[in-house]
Amino acid sequence: MGDIFLELKDIHKSFGGVHALRGVDLTIRSGEIHCLAGENGSGKSTLIKVISGAHHPTKGEIYIEGNKIPSLNPIAAISQGVQVIYQDFAVFPNLTVAENIALNRAVTTGTKWMDWKNARNLAIEAMEQIGAKMDPDLLVENLSVANRQMVAICRTIINDAKLLILDEPTASLTAKEVKKLNAILRRLRDKGIAVMIVNHKVDEIFAIAERLTILRNGEKISTGPVAEYDRKRFVHELTGRDLSGSGYAPLASEAEIFRVEHLSRKGAFEDVSFKMRKGDVLGITGLLDSGRGQIGDALFGIAPADSGKIFLRGEEIAIRSTEDAVKQKIAYVPEDRLTQGLFLDRSIQDNTVAASLKKYFRKGKLNDAVMYRETAQWIDRIGCVAPSPEPAVRTLSGGNAQKIVIAKWLNTDPALIILNGPTNGVDVGAKFDIHKILHNLAAQGIGVILISDDLSELIQNCNTILIMKDRRMASMIQTAEVNETRLAEMLSS
User: Fold this and answer.
1) What is the pTM of this model?
2) Disulfide-capable partner of 419 in 94, 114, 168, 333 (CB 3.0 to 4.6 Å)?
3) What CATH number should be reported for the domain whose range is 4-239?
4) 212, burial (CB in 10 Å: exposed 0-12, middle 13-18, buried 19+)
C-alpha cells in the first residue's frame, strides 16, 4: 500500500437546511482498494461528487498527494488524476469502442481533430493493460453491460487515472462478470492506482476490498481494514440495526397452493414441474439464459407457456395473458422496477393503486380519500420511508421504490406473488425488510416464488429451490440440505 493520495478532513455538505454530510474524514492510499459503504441516503453519492469536484463542500479541507486543494471542479479533479465511473458508465452507444476510449483524451488535451488511427492504438493499449478483449471497431451499443464497463475503465487508464472511483459497479453484472471485474481492479491496484468502490453488498466487499469506510446518515461510522469486520459488525454499523437471522423454515403443511405440470415455452424453457404448499417460499435460479426469468413471465402471462398445466388452490387455470393472471389473483414483481414496475413521474399513491383501481370507484368516480388512506396504510405496513402518498415515486430510494412495487401487488390481495430479482440494487436494510415481507406473506398462506441469482438470498429465504440449466429443470432441492458453496457448484457443474 502506497502513500496517501486523497485526504478529506471534516467535510460538511448542506443543501438548504438538509445536511448531507456531517464532518466526514476519509483517507485513500495509492495502490489500495477501498470500499465506501452505506445505505441509500447515507451520503455516499454526495461524497463522491465532492471528491470529483461536482459539489463544493460547505466546510472542510481536501488534500490530493499532500497538497491542499482550495477549490476543486470536475476538470481540475480529472487533471489531478481523479476519475469516476457512474452506474450508466457515460459511454456513447453510437461510437466505437476506440472512439469512446480516446474521446476523453481529446477533450482534456484540447485536440480539435480526432486522430482515428491513434485512437485505435490507444484503445488497444488500454485494453491490454487491464486484460480486456474487445473489437475496437465495434459500436458500444452492441456490447454487453460488462464490456461497456470495461470501455469506461479503459478510458480512465489513458487519462492517467491515479484514483478510480466506481459507483455500484456490480449492479448489473453476473457473478462471473464480477470476478472478472475484481481481477481487473486488482491489476490496477498493483500498478499503484487507488481504487474506491461504492457498494453495500457484504460478500462482494469482503471479496475485493482491503479497507472499508462506512457512512450512515451523512456521518462516518467507522473505517479500517476489512479483516477487522465480520458480517454482523458490518451490517450493524451500516444500518444501525441488528439484522441477523437464520434460514427460512415454514411450518409443515399439506395444503397445496400452486402446482405446475410439464410447463414449456419453445425457446424459453422445457418441461418444468413443481408444487407449493402453504408456507412455502420457492426459489428459482440458474445461470444467465437458463430460462429462470422466463418461467415468471409465463406464469404471469407476459409470454405464456405453449404447453403444460397450471393449478391454483387445486383448480386448473389458463394463463394466456397478464389479464388472465391478474384475474386469477397472481401478482408479478418484475426484474426492472424502473421500466416495468413503476410510473416514475406519478405519485406514490397512483403507483400503489395502479393494479387495483376498480375497487376505488364510487358512483363512477375514483374515491381519492380512500386511495390516500389505504396508500398511507401500505407505506406504514411495508416500512416505506416516505413523507406521504403524494410525492412522485422517483423521489424514493431504490429500496423504498421496490417496496411500493410490492405494495401495488399486495393491494390486489394475491393468492400467488412472483418476484424476479426483488432486491437488485437495494441496500442491506431494505433487503432485510423485503425478505421479512415475503416470510409474512408465506405465513399467511400466499404462495411466494422468488427468482434470483443471489445465492445467499435464496438460501436465507426459500425452503425449496428449483435449479434451471440449459432452459430445462435440472433439480429441485431442499434449502436445508445445501449451503452457498454447494449451490454454486450445482449451478456451474
Assistant:
1) 0.73
2) 333
3) 3.40.50.300
4) buried
